[in-house]
Structures are given as C-alpha cells and as structure tokens.
Design brief:
248 residues; alpha/beta
Length: 248
C-alpha cells in the first residue's frame, strides 16, 4: 500500500508580514496566516489526503497552523508530537531585524549568504541574550550542548534529520499518512534528503507558506511522486515571493 507524507510550512506569521528574521522567536500567525492554514486543510480534503498522525515544532506559528488545518478537516483528535528538532533555522543576532534594512546595511550578497549559503552561519547570540534558547523555559530539558545560538542551513538539517529518520519515518510501520507542520528550513532538510538534492539545489528551493507538499512512496518507502497541492502558477508566485524577501 502507498505511504504518504505531507509537509506544511506554517502560514504567514506576524514577523513574515513585517519581513523580519524570525528563527526561534515564538511569533504568532497573522490573519493571513490563519486563513492559509484553513486553506491547507481544505486542500488536503480536496485531494483526499487524510493524515493519521502529526508532528510539529515547539513554535506556535507551526503548532497553530497544524491545529487550524486539522480543525478544518475535523481531525482535531489526531495524535500530535511536538519536537524542538523541527524548529526553524536559528538566525542568531539577525532575529528581529528587518530583512530589507539588513540588506541595505550589509548588502544583498551578505544577506543572501546568511539566508541561503548552505554552511554560512549568521552572527551568534550570547547565551544571556533574551533571544537565546538558554533563556527560554521550553528548552530547559534539552541538553545545553545541543542548543544553538546561530545555525546555517547545514546545521539545521543536521539537527532535524536524525529526528525525522529515527522518530517520524518508523511511524509508517503502523500509519499510511503522516503530516508535519514546521518551517521553511527544517522542511527543506527533509526535502533535500527525500529528493536527494545537492546543496546548490536546496538553497535555491523555496517552500511557500500554507501549501501542503505531498510525497508519495511505495511500500518500501521509495519515493514515487511529490507535488504541491495547489496550481503551478500559485506555487511559483509564492516561491518567488519567498526568494525576494531578503533583497533591497
């Protein structure tokens, strides 16, 4: 029997709307983001995709996107596991800064490096910075050696993929459809591995907010097909919008 994995990048957040670097900052959904989550649920219903078990991060924009989508599908009762391993890439000192203003200050090329170069880390926070995960009670039980003060995409993928491989994939032994609601960069790590993309390919690949991304596997978990549950024109427009966020 076929197995299905659905990835949803959270709907637009209040900081997405303001074009701010967000990272691990726990920012809520905007009204548009809530509507995107509703539409994600409707898209899954339209395409006959019915999740059986769900995973999300520790950040409310992903949690609320998942909850709204499930509510839209009348699947509020589904089991949900939250893990910090699915959090967004940590943007260090960039968190809270406007992307356009940062590009004006440091140049498009430098901001592009921080956002998109595979192994380039933004400037790190100090542990006692109020934005640091060391100051956030939700991470009090996480090994301090594992908590980041900044991350590259490479670091984010290294954090996310062991959890995906060791905790999420085994659920296919007892479930046919798994749903993950998370973030642009943690989900790109999953996409990179499933599609065996190169570093150059994944840094150019943008995941739009609120559009379910469906992967279909055979019974041996070999990838058969992947597609966004939306028309191609809409997906391209949204991908382009993500790509242009860090430009002057």
């Amino acid at each position: 029997m076929e197995k299905r994995l659905v990835l949803i990048r959270h709907g637009q957040s209040e900081w997405n709307k303001l074009n701010l670097f967000t990272g691990w900052k726990d920012v809520d959904l905007s009204e548009q983001g809530k509507e995107e989550a509703v539409q994600a649920g409707k898209a899954m219903l339209e395409y006959g995709v019915r999740p059986e078990i769900c995973f999300t991060s520790y950040l409310k924009r992903a949690i609320k996107t998942l909850n709204i989508a499930l509510d839209t599908m009348n699947l509020d009762y589904l089991p949900v596991t939250k893990s910090w391993h699915l959090n967004e890439k940590h943007y260090g000192q960039l968190q809270g800064l406007n992307k356009k203003e940062t590009a004006e200050r440091y140049g498009d090329d430098q901001v592009l490096r921080w956002r998109r170069v595979f192994d380039c880390q933004p400037p790190a926070l100090e542990k006692d910075d109020e934005r640091s995960p060391f100051q956030d009670p939700r991470y009090k039980n996480v090994d301090s050696k594992s908590l980041p003060l900044t991350e590259s995409l490479k670091d984010c993928i290294a954090r996310c993929m062991p959890y995906f491989n060791e905790t999420i994939l085994p659920e296919f032994k007892t479930h046919d459809t798994i749903l993950i609601a998370a973030h642009g960069n943690s989900l790109r790590g999953i996409v990179k591995n499933l599609k065996q993309m190169t570093e150059d390919e994944i840094i150019k690949f943008n995941i739009p907010t609120g559009i379910p991304y469906l992967f279909t596997f055979d019974e041996n978990l070999q990838l058969k097909e992947d597609r966004f549950l939306a028309d191609e024109k809409t997906v391209k427009e949204l991908m382009d919008a993500v790509a242009n966020q860090g430009k002057r």
